[in-house]
Amino acid sequence: MADTSGGLPRGPSLTPPLLTRAFVLAAMANAILNLSGSLFVHLPGFLQQIGAGEGEVGRIMAMQAIGAILVWPLVGAVMDTRDDEW
Length: 86
Known about the structure:
Elements: H1 21-49, H2 54-81
Helix pairs in contact: 1-2
């Protein structure tokens, strides 16, 4: 029988597993970021379809931006305190 391994040693795999905690968290963060980007693009049109005026749409979008500005420093502080766990 011919050797089909290509000369590589057999046994346990030397590559690390893909679905690690860090990978799953990064994938979830990427999904949330993409969803929020989609929301930012499509929410004004949806609000206008349900009858919101331009001023109301602007106020809602401003609240979203203000919320992000207020939350990001908190997220950064939490990540700094938990840095040794990652």
